[in-house]
Amino acid sequence: MRVFSGVQPTGALHLGNYLGALTQFVRLQEDAECLFCVVDLHALTVPRNPVELRRETLQVASAYLACGIDPAHATVFVQSHVPEHAELAWILGCISTFGELGRMTQFKDKSQNEHNVSLGLFAYPTLMAADILLYQADAVPIGDDQKQHLELCRDLTQRFNARFGPTFTLPEPLIGQVGGRIMSLQDPVHKMSKSDPDSNSRIGLFEPADIIRQKLRRAVTDTGREVRFDQEVKPAVSNLLEIFSLCSGETIATLEARYADSGYARFKADLAEAVIAKLEPIQARYREYQAAEDVVRVTLRQGAERAAALASETMATVRERVGLLGPGD
Ligand code: TRP
Fold it and tell me: Residue 98: phi, psi to the nearest 5?
């Protein structure tokens, strides 16, 4: 089985990214051939400061490695290092319709109240489809918010294969069972998000312990004072219980029993220590990679070489199928 997933180099990674996506990536690399890509071309769909983009690309790659993605098991690389992504995105764009791209909810959300909506933002899902199809991925770990894009990718796969002959593997979504929906600490009906203007809503993967304690102290809770898992009645406390369970490895039932009558303050204080303990080794490794950026760069170069070998094979077939004249034809 081959797995592909991408993370945008925009903003610092947070606990939701870690518990939702990255831990799943680390598990998957044991049993599947994995490619994990820092999708810098996707980041360009909204205006970005060039210096920051370059820095964040390296940071996300370092974070992948710090979280336990092992380059001996998985291919870690930067999207723009393999130019075939953009080439295939163009070809897929030519079989995508204006109507279906306009129906993407992420596009509708991001383009609302914007005057200068870029073609790149509109075509974002065709680039994402290219990422996946270039490597003939069987499975794609994604969050709920990317389901519609993957559905479009599957439509394009079938359309291309029907029109030009079997070329691409039809990818399946892998939606995480646990930790897939870590919610905001300030508003538990919304996912923890990089783009939330309120930084108290999330815990950064690389934030110091005292900030983590402070943010969890400030986290909203629900009415009543008992610590109980009930997503309908107690969405905030349920979210905190889920975070606690994923960080400490204890079951939610164990935690409920321990904290049932202890009040929110005690619960949150212990939760903070569990989160800090979970993040500490990741933060230590991240600092090591930051001190040895060359190691990260070499990993990315080797990753791009491996990815490029697969990508060029797919593209040779694609060019031939759609009727592009090869220079050697
Ligand atoms: N669109 C994804 C996101 O914002 C990132 C992404 C780009 C991706 N290409 C991908 C995810 C391919 C999975 C597969 O989360």
Answer: -55, -40
